[in-house]
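Methods — Computational structure assignment.
A single polypeptide chain was analysed. Its primary sequence is given first, followed by the predicted tertiary structure written as structure tokens.
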Amino acid sequence: MNKIKKIPLRKCVVTNERFEKKQLIRVVRSPEGVVSVDPTGKANGRGAYLKKDASVILQAKKTKVLERHLETPIPDTVYDDLLKQAAA
């Protein structure tokens, strides 16, 4: 009997939709308090997921949803990195 591999789903903090991990971008706040984009999805710290969509990223910036989830201010450079990843 073949066992079906379970695909991990994660929730976008802006749209509240569930997606496979590879359809999302992870933003992480390290234990030192540094916020960065985590392309591997394995970095240590508190993570939040965003859909790979420029409009979702801009909405996250406008509503400060990432700042609430990660409990720290988010520098504009992080949003720039997110937009670059979404375009890729």
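Note: The chain has a mean pLDDT of 92.
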